[in-house]
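$ run holo --ligand "zinc ion" --emit tokens
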Amino acid sequence: MKYRQTLLLDSSYLPKNVIDSGRAFVIFMKGNCEIVKHYPKKFGLVRKDVDIYKPAVIRIKEYINIDYHSVPLNRDNIFKRDNHECVYCGRRDLDKKSLTIDHVIPQSHGGPNTWENLVTACKKCNGEKSNLTLLEYGKAIPSPKRPHYLMLMKKVDYIPNEWKDYLFF
Ligand SMILES: [Zn+2]
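-- output --
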């Protein structure tokens, strides 16, 4: 669901957690963080004198040293990184059966199985693209990246645009 969750960065702008946006607001009101980015939506608060946009990304004052978790490269995680949308036509209403994994550089052209070369595509686009290179296919796509493990947490069901500067390497 949109605007429900907030990405928490530590003082060095490294992503450390995903929390409820209400909780992020409380941390902000206590003076313990700054709001780095907000959503285009306000809290529906009873007090009309408090008028604040929901925080999308907050930055706390401490540096938290947590070990880096690596992310398994598999179908479900690629779908999740791409928000279950076809990167070529942008279709969103795809069920799992209509989703495919496409090699940006086809395997037949030596394209590897890496985060940077695998994307979510609908069956139709994958079929059209087939063994064509992107140049031959003639459609631009955003370059796929290795995701941060926070993106793939169970409770995160949607990756807001506001988070993307912080979650990709
Ligand atoms: Zn498509």
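-- notes --
The mean pLDDT is 87.
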